[in-house]
Amino acid sequence: MLAPTGGVRSEVIGRAELLERMKKELAEDLEPELLEGSTELLFALGAAPADLDYLGSMLTLLGTQLAGFYDPSEKEMVLLDDLGMEAQQATLWHELVHALQDQHYDLKPLMKWQAGRGDALSAVQALAEGDATSAMMDLMLLPRGQTALDVPEGMLAGSLGLMEAMPEIAPVPRILKRSIVAPYVAGLAFVHARRRAGGWQAVDGAWRDLPTTSEQILHPDKYAAHEPAEVVPVPPAPPGGPDHVIYRDVLGEETLRIAFEEWVPRVTAAEAAAGWGGDNVAVFADGDRRAVGLRLRYDDEAHAKRGFEAVARGALQAESDVASGDKPPPSVPVGQALAAVRKGSVCQVRGHRGPFAAVWRGRDLGVALGPYQRAGSATQSRSDCASALGWAESIVRAQ
């Protein structure tokens, strides 16, 4: 366990002030490029409505869950003033671990987003939350003579999963709800794998030799083997479409798994994301025109085939403009997707989001979303599958 190198400033404030502080933190952390790009990506995937308020949705989520936070910029711990004793202690212990992490490893630069660094950031965030959650659970279970390692792995995932059903957050896109929970669940499993292998010293070792991908978090054996991500080319712009890159990033296995859960059952999504080798996503804009391209690479063709089946089911899913927190459209039958797998390509034109086209070539998938026209929250598209499939082919062939 880490030893403190100094004191930690703390402040106890009301809920309204806590949310204002959190809003300020999010506004500083969410770069305009990241905010605009993430919003467009979720819309293009069909996971969010055109009028998504990304920042507002995140604040809604945090407003129902937040009990405190550690601010690495101010080196200060902030706690809510209306917590019960047990919740106060749990929050205090969790945030103190973040303070120790900061004292030893300087969290702020590690948590700073940069283009192409999204998946590496997810890996560090999962380590941080898993470390803090495991230590917090140890202290809570101490009176019973137990540790966090005595708690079944699925229990935390189940309890956090209940958050998705809370009526207060019903309008928030499902994909954002799962994204909030994922670092805690995956990070805790990773930290416990480290603890079982070598105790808390092994967890400290992970801070000195950071995991570089969410794949390494989800598969600790790949962390132990230092399996790197493959460098994948940035998708080219759609021919005749918007050509200015406003956002690019690496999604990683964890984000891919969460996205697949929009189209297939959770277990199937995990299987379809497994074998991830690398990816690159780009959001293109030109005036009010938008498009999203994704190049995805797997370790081998067998994993790529399974991934393409999930993508095909996403492409063939009916476009839905219902409130994003409601149930998704019915899942596409496996047999319908397998027909696309046999062809190695799939495309469906969506009235508001443009075509959803994808091709599978060897270990690689090329995904083309759009182009479509934006006018605030109103969107339309006149693009066709022939041009979209041609673009997807150029994505998968780019060098």
| Straight-line distance between termini | 46 Å
Q: How many strand units?
A: 10
Approximately what portion of the residues adopt beta-strand conformation?
15-25%
Rg, nearest Å: 21 Å
- Based on helices, strands and strand pairing, what is the structural class? alpha+beta
Number of helices: 15
User: What sequence of helices (H) and strands (E) makes up the elements?
Assistant: EHHHEEHHHHHHHEHHEEHHEEEEH
Largest sheet: 7 strands, antiparallel
- The coarse overall form would be globular
Number of domains: 2
Helical content stands at 40-55%
> What is the mean predicted local confidence, pLDDT?
90
Poorly predicted tracts of residues = 321-325
Short synopsis of the structure:
By secondary structure, the chain is an alpha+beta fold. Helices cover 50% and strands 18% of the residues.
Tags for this entry?
single chain, 399 residues, alpha+beta, Protein Transport Mog1p, Chain A, seven-stranded antiparallel beta sheet, 15 helices, 10 strands, 18% strand
Question: What do these coordinates show?
Answer:
Helices cover 50% and strands 18% of the residues. The protein folds into 2 domains: 9-224, no CATH class; 244-397, Protein Transport Mog1p, Chain A (3-Layer(aba) Sandwich), CATH 3.40.1000. Helix 1 (15-29) packs across helix 3 (54-65) and helix 6 (118-141) packs across helix 8 (174-208). The chain has 15 helices and 10 strands. The chain is of the alpha+beta class and 399 residues long. It has helices spanning 15-29, 32-45, 54-65, 85-105, 107-110, 118-141, 153-161, 174-208, 214-218, 220-224, 252-260, 266-273, 301-316, 334-343, 385-397; strands at residues 9-13, 68-71, 76-80, 244-249, 276-286, 289-298, 345-350, 354-361, 364-375, 378-380.
